[in-house]
Amino acid sequence: MRIGELARRSGVSERSLRYYEMQELLRSERTPGGQRHYGEWAVDRVIRIQALYAAGLNSKKIAQLLPCMRDADGAPSEIATPRLVDELAAERDRINRMITDLIRSRDVLDEVIATASVGVDAPAVSGADAVGAARG
């Protein structure tokens, strides 16, 4: 598939896809006319790259990690090292700390909203109550 189709199917801009190639996170074959061509596996790869960026990893760490993951084509992982596993575990711990901090901040905000809502016409709705009401 061409770069435009990969961008459409993965939800990532063509500019980002070219950047991923420059960072050696993604590869393409070139047609005789110089156009990029990607295999079906590239959609899953790009989605995985986006998830890793969203998790806070930088392109250097992602480049180390990607060969250790299986793509849709089933390519085996052969280069995981104990050091890489330790670094990834540290990243996971960092994310968990961020989640804990966000939950704590949300809880404080819920308390402030509840206190500020006393005497106000609109009833206070906590985050948990809003989720329960949305579910129905």
TrEMBL record:
Keywords: DNA-binding
SUPFAM superfamilies linked: Putative DNA-binding domain
Gene3D superfamilies: 1.10.1660.10
The keyword Membrane appears for this protein: no
Entry keyword annotation includes Glycoprotein: no
Pfam families assigned to the protein according to its UniProt record, in alphabetical order: MerR_1
PROSITE patterns hit by this protein: HTH_MERR_2
Residue ranges of domain HTH merR-type in the record: 1-68
Database matches in PANTHER family: MERR FAMILY REGULATORY PROTEIN (PTHR30204:SF97), REDOX-CYCLING DRUG-SENSING TRANSCRIPTIONAL ACTIVATOR SOXR (PTHR30204)
Name of the molecule in the record: MerR family transcriptional regulator
Source organism per UniProt: Streptomyces noboritoensis
